[in-house]
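Human: I'm a chemist; would you kindly supply sequence and structure tokens for a protein?

Assistant:
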Amino acid sequence: MERSFLTILLGLVVVVLFFSCGGIETHVEVLKGNYAFTRGEYQEANIAYLRVLQKNIHTGYISYNLGNVYHALGEPEAAREEWVRSLDTGDNRLLFRVLFNQGVLSYELGLYEEAYVSFRKALVLDPGDIGAKVNLEYCLQKINRQGSRQASQSTQSGTGKTTPGDDVERVLEYIRHRESWETPEPEEPAKELDW
């Protein structure tokens, strides 16, 4: 008797899952896209995500995934457009990931001040994230180097103007003193079990 009750309960759960949130096909397509992305099959992931996006379900999350695919394909403008679409979400964790990825893309493109702004906004959402802190520091160093380069060029040309490099270095020192940033030790890879 107890076994039949569990079977009925399991059947109800399956039915609820099938009819909730746009049906099981949507979830299967997202899983296909995620699986293809992790395997480096970006075109297949792109197709799977676009199918789900047509259904207008979870558009913020799907746009985030599409942005990741476009970034992996080396299409920065398409990635940026998708990530901007996913900013309207109410999920702070997704918003953090979008801002973090925008910072990475801006850094890769040499837009260090834009990257700095993205990482700073991400840190407002998750102040304990070490990756965002380290990337913020890299941005500050690049901005400082650019400022130093501009200062030496302006000194050579005789203008004698000061640059924001000194301000950036002060902010960086303040952050270092305020929090002790330690780079975590690299973890050893998980050992696979031989089945």
